[in-house]
Design a protein that fits this description.
- The chain has helices at 3-17, 20-27, 47-55, 58-68, 161-172, 191-205, 216-228, 232-239, 257-272, 293-301, 312-326, 332-341, 346-362, 369-384, 389-400, 404-408, 417-431, 435-441, 447-463, 465-480; strands at residues 31-36, 39-44, 75-80, 181-185, 211-215, 244-248, 276-281, 303-307.
- The chain contains 20 helices and 8 strands.
- It has 4 domains: 3-96, 2-Layer Sandwich (GMP Synthetase, Chain A, domain 3), CATH 3.30.300.180; 140-307, Rossmann fold (3-Layer(aba) Sandwich), CATH 3.40.50.300; 312-383, Helicase, Ruva Protein, domain 3; 389-480, Orthogonal Bundle (Chromosomal Replication Initiator Protein Dnaa, Chain: A).
- Mean pLDDT is 83; it is low at 84-137.
- The strands form 2 sheets. It has a 5-stranded parallel β-sheet, with helices on both faces. A 3-stranded mixed β-sheet has the order 1-2-3.
- The chain is of the alpha/beta class.
- The structure holds adenosine-5'-diphosphate (ADP) and magnesium ion.
- The site of magnesium ion has 4 residues, from helix 6.
């Protein structure tokens, strides 16, 4: 077996055990460079891949190697290959960073108002005849960055670590590692925070770089305005001299053909110059309806990574961090109550905490579980109002792998006793169904049966952490799947 064949087989194994986004990100353009005395040397395209492969994916690699290779494998090490065959891998990668030409974009340094006054090229000074062709009004540059969003105050957990690592890598080496970088995930999960962190980090290390953060909606509005005012050339000029372009919520470009075409044009120009482009969306590129194919394939040519919902522990960690930031203290039980009930996204989690803090400060109260519960009751009710009985059935049946019939009919099958009690518990706790209604849903049982089920589960959760976890999982599935 040649090294190439061995590595191919190893990759095949690894691909089965990790997510596609991770696989592509970390294993694209890797190869085996040597295998000697059980030590495997892997060639990787950059330092970030080296770090991740050696520290995080080494177990997967070793496992796969040992499975496929008869020889004993003792360890792996990664070497960054300088001659990088990957520069041709992304479609239309154009020039390498070394020979990129900034001169290709001729734009006046001294940008002035788009709307009000013309600006002059840098060599111009009063009294010196200027070339009228160069006297183009241009856009005032605003990075639109919000300094609140930094890598330091972003809590890293398994739901976002890949996205965070990719963003950080990009901030250290814009245009060189992952271009474009595409981050997707649901609302309030930290996409904007990460995107802006890249900009803030780069501003701090390279204040001379031109950074632009803009939502795709705003981009569309600006574009439309510039067309209306016959300033489309200035618009293009302006964008083409940005070093780091961050477009947030790109899903809103969907269906806007003219905007997409213009964006594609700007995108290509920046890309050819190895300028960094970072994009976020609430879904992966292939799921953005009516996105032009060429734009979609451009996105897919870079790095795509997702952010998922934070788990319970992460939610607690985020709350604790926000409390430290605010210099406020809350008792543990209240904190758990918030993390248990606000599971949808980090924005709501923060909102809930802010509500508790504001209420307690205003009323000069010390936070307590009962106060927290009261303050958040309305909020929690709002996030839960769309749940139905069918949702509960669906989740319980899936989770315990049982038949609905067994769950609701009156039989005494032992293995469904616990799932049934759980379903009853959830109906009460999540839908506030009366005990007699619960009884009748489950094969005309007496209301005391339902009451007993609820109390039993409720009591046991106080003692049994495994049961507590089980309820967490069921609730998560109830609300988010
Ligand atoms: P999105 O853009 O995905 O909708 P945002 O970036 O606006 O989400 O995040 C919503 C709020 O939650 C922001 O205030 C952000 O600072 C905060 N947030 C999200 N994820 C984290 C995290 N991992 N650590 C700290 N704060 C976070
Ligand atoms: Mg956002």
């Amino acid at each position: 077996m040649t090294h190439e064949e061995l590595w191919k087989a190893v990759l095949g194994e690894i691909e089965l055990s990790i997510s596609r986004a991770n696989f592509i990100t970390w294993f694209k353009n890797t190869s085996i460079l040597g295998l000697e005395n059980g030590a495997v040397t892997i060639g990787v395209p950059n330092g970030f891949a080296k770090e991740w492969l050696e520290n995080k994916y080494n177990i997967y690699i070793l496992k796969a190697l040992r499975k496929i290779n008869p020889e004993e494998i003792r360890g792996i090490q990664c070497i960054i290959r300088t001659e990088n065959p990957s520069s041709s891998q992304s479609a239309g990668a154009g020039q390498s960073p070394q020979n990129r030409s900034i001169d290709a974009i001729k734009a006046p340094e001294n940008r002035s108002s788009f709307d009000i006054r013309p600006s002059y090229p840098p060599h111009a000074h009063p009294g010196y005849p200027t070339n009228p062709a160069l006297e183009k009004p241009t856009l005032i540059h605003h990075s639109n960055l919000n300094h609140r969003y930094t890598f330091e105050n972003f809590i890293v957990s398994e739901n976002n670590e890949l996205a965070r690592a990719a963003c950080f890598a990009v901030s250290q080496n814009p245009g060189m590692v992952y271009n474009p970088l595409f981050i997707y995930g649901g609302v309030g999960l930290g996409k904007t925070h990460l995107l802006q962190s890249i900009g803030n980090e780069l501003t701090a290390s390279h204040p001379e770089k031109k950074i632009k953060y803009i939502t795709s909606e705003r981009f569309t509005t600006e574009l439309v305005d510039s067309i209306k005012n016959q300033k489309i050339d200035q618009f293009k000029d302006y964008y083409q001299q940005i070093d780091l372009l961050i477009i947030d919520d790109v899903q809103f470009l969907s269906g806007k053909e003219k905007t997409q075409a213009e964006f594609f044009h700007i995108f290509n120009a920046l890309y050819q110059l190895n300028k960094q482009i970072v994009i976020s969306s609430d879904r992966p590129p292939h799921a953005i309806a009516t996105l032009e194919d060429r734009l979609r394939s451009r996105f897919q040519g870079g790095m795509i990574t997702d952010i998922s919902r934070p788990n319970y522990e992460t939610r607690i960690a985020i709350l604790e961090a926000k409390l430290r930031e605010r210099g406020f203290q809350i008792d543990r039980e209240s904190l758990h109550y918030i993390a248990e009930n606000i599971t949808q996204n980090v924005r709501e989690l923060e909102g809930a905490l802010n509500r508790v803090i504001a209420y307690c400060e205003f009323h000069k109260l010390t936070p307590s579980p009962s106060a927290t519960e009261k303050i958040l009751s309305q909020l929690i009710f709002q996030t839960k109002k769309n749940l139905s009985l069918d949702d509960i059935f669906r989740v319980v049946i899936e989770y315990y792998k049982i038949e609905k019939e067994d769950l609701v009919k009156k039989g005494r099958k032992k293995e469904v006793a616990h799932p049934r009690q759980m379903a009853m518990y959830l109906m009460r706790s999540e839908l506030q169904t009366s005990f007699s209604s619960i009884g009748s849903v489950f094969g005309g049982r007496d209301h005391t049966t339902a009451l007993h089920a609820f109390e039993k589960i409720h009591k046991n959760t106080q003692l049994n952490t495994q049961l507590k976890e089980e309820i967490h999982t069921l609730k998560e599935r109830l609300y988010y799947s």
